Amino acid sequence: MSSDRIKIVWIYPDLLATYGDQGNTIVLERRAALRGIPTETVHMRSDEPVPPDGDIYLLGGGEDRPQILAAHRLRRDGGLAAAAQRGAVVFAVCAGYQILGHEFGGEEGQPVPGLGLLDISSGRGEQRAVGEIVGDVATELNVPRITGFENHQGATRLGPNARPLARVVAGIGNGGGDGTEGAYAGHILGTYMHGPALVRNPGLADLLLRWAVGSELRPIDDSWAGRLREERLNAVLSASR
Ligand code: GLN
Questions:
Q1: How large a percentage of the chain has pLDDT more than 70?
Q2: What pLDDT is recorded for position 105?
Q3: How much is the pTM?
Q4: What are 125-168's pLDDT values in tens digits?
Q5: How far is the CA of 117 from the centre of ligand 1 (A)?
Q6: Nearest CA owner, ligand 1 atom 6
Q7: Which residues does a 6 A CB cutoff place in the pocket of ligand 1?
Q8: Less Cβ around it within 10 Å: N or C end of the chain?
Q9: Which residues are catalytic?
């Protein structure tokens, strides 16, 4: 944390914010507040410079053309890359996740350069991945099973410098044939999960907050969130049997 509060930067709500992904900002604010940690959230539209002094940067999903424009502007701006190199936390969903990689597939499948902050590359998959997804998170991240909703044409392959976020239990995820979902390296983490992901997975929200403050967090009462998660997980897993 660079000051007495966590600075959350919500990147390009005008281009990258499908399926209520903005809810991720609200959950981080709320879970920090419940522990007495102040936050400040700034919404940066795509015609504004990305501040390099944030603690947590969030990117959401987007349709193909807004995604290309967002990638172009983020590359030109340089603020997100500077923050990531300094160790800031970056959490990106779907289109935002693909943008963090070396390249992704445009609306005609043409390769579009990304930011190269995560060692992943995406292209157009054979089939659109639409539906519920469940995954078991890499053990070193200490996050319970994650659940979300996916809707993407892109398929993503991980290079040697990125680790899979999770192993797919139901759904498609990265779609590169290795049964993985999402990727992370250092404090940069991407996923195909909407939901919003941090609403449906408070453990993932707390991982980002732990990274931002650099220490463990006081536990909070998650009984309501836990019941809703149970209900969702049971519904998905019984349907996929
Ligand atoms: N346009 C991208 C794809 O289809 C991302 C979609 C999304 O963000 N939901 O792969």
A1: 99
A2: 97
A3: 0.97
A4: 989 999 999 999 999 999 999 999 999 999 999 999 999 999 99
A5: 18
A6: 152
A7: 18, 61-64, 67, 94-95, 151-154
A8: C
A9: 94, 194
Region 19-46: mean pLDDT is 97
Mean pLDDT rounded to a whole number for the chain: 96
> What is the 3-class SS of the chain, one letter each residue?
CCCCCEEEEEECCCCCCHHHCCHHHHHHHHHHHCCCCCEEEEEECCCCCCCCCCCEEEECCCCHHHHHHHHHHHHHHCHHHHHHHCCCEEEEECHHHHHHCCEEECCCCCEEECCCCCCEEEEEEEEEEEEEEEEEECHHHCCCCEEEEEEEEEEEEECCCCEEEEEEEECCCCCCCCCEEEEEECCEEEECCECCHHHHCHHHHHHHHHHHHCCCCCCCCCHHHHHHHHHHHHHHHHHCC
Q: Looking at domain 6-240, what is its CATH homologous superfamily?
A: Class I glutamine amidotransferase (GATase) domain (3.40.50.880)
145 is in an annotated binding site: no
95 Cα to the center of ligand 1, angstroms: 5
* Most informative mutation of 152, 156, 157, 174 for ligand 1 (most atoms within 8 A of CB): 152
pLDDT more than 90, % of the chain: 95
Atom number, ligand 1, closest to the C-alpha of residue 64: 1
